[in-house]
Write a structure and sequence with these properties.
283 residues; mainly alpha
């Protein structure tokens, strides 16, 4: 189809020339992201920025009062929510919620694909969070964010697709294009958003079951395994043997048995559902 090649050529040319159309993060997310590592940052100043977006502030308070973070219900405003969560966790959650807005795109079919993509990313993010909780050295809320961005390269493809009248009506073709192009584009998007190097590489590695740069567990390892686990029980999905995946053999939970991670996620299914509901409601 002419539109397909036209879209591929347009994306590749814009990618090579540094002109790729990458959506902007909301201003609140950009400012909050800069607070980490700023010696002058404090809870009051971060709260002031987050309160610029009342819906985001309300979501943060809701999460601070949830079972995930104590569930006592006594964080009544943004400042008390940040005090409970900590500034780093607040930053990771704000970035996670902000990503959902980036998937609100285009025509009916493009929007449906965007929602489905966000839903799958939310599932991977929730599983990443659970795996991180039993992995020393991995921060669960950062793993949540890492899982969310694994397919972020779909966003520019969806946005460009909306400019091609015939293509934007063809769900199957757009989905194939995402599979073909999103990995390289995902890393570019995250670079432009000033994400950590640990997260920038995730889109290019998430399908690499041989990924093994060292003995220490990384966020890439967590997301690779979260993505594999998200495929269990899905019709038409061929799932590799867990023990054959380098990332899985590095996880502490692997030492307790080859089925330990499946048992863990089964026991945590209510928490997984709560996390996915929290994330999908942000989009």
């Amino acid at each position: 189809m002419k539109d397909v090649q036209g879209l591929v050529d347009r994306i590749q040319e814009d990618y090579r020339s540094g002109k790729l159309q990458v959506p902007s993060l909301p201003e609140v997310a950009i400012k909050v992201n800069k607070y980490i590592g700023d010696p002058d940052a404090n809870i009051a100043s971060m709260a002031k920025v987050i309160q610029m977006d009342p819906a985001l502030a309300a979501k943060l308070i809701q999460v601070a009062n949830s079972a995930m973070y104590g569930g006592h219900g006594n964080a009544e405003d943004c400042r008390s929510a940040i005090a409970r969560l900590g500034m780093t966790t607040t930053r990771n959650l704000v970035m996670s919620f902000a990503l959902g807005n980036s998937f609100q795109i285009g025509s009916a079919i493009v929007r449906d694909i965007a929602r489905a993509t966000w839903s799958k990313s939310s599932d991977v993010a929730a599983i990443s969070y659970i795996l991180a909780k039993v992995t020393v050295g991995i921060i669960p809320d950062k793993a949540l964010l890492a899982g969310l961005v694994h397919n972020i390269g779909a966003i520019p493809i969806l946005r460009y697709s909306a400019e091609f009248p015939d293509l934007k009506k063809d769900r199957e073709l757009i989905t194939r294009l995402i599979d073909r192009l999103s990995r390289k584009l995902g890393s570019l998007v995250l670079k432009q958003w000033s994400f950590d190097d640990e997260l920038v590489n995730i889109p290019t590695q998430v399908y690499n079951h041989n990924y093994d740069p060292g003995k220490d567990v990384s966020y890439q390892d967590i997301v690779i395994m979260a993505h594999v686990h998200s495929q269990f029980g899905k019709e038409g999905q061929a799932v590799p043997n867990l023990g054959d995946i380098a990332s899985f053999r590095k996880l502490p939970i692997f030492q307790t048995g080859p089925d330990a991670s499946i048992e863990l996620l089964y026991e945590a299914r209510e928490e997984v559902n709560m996390l996915t509901d929290m994330l999908t409601s942000a989009a």
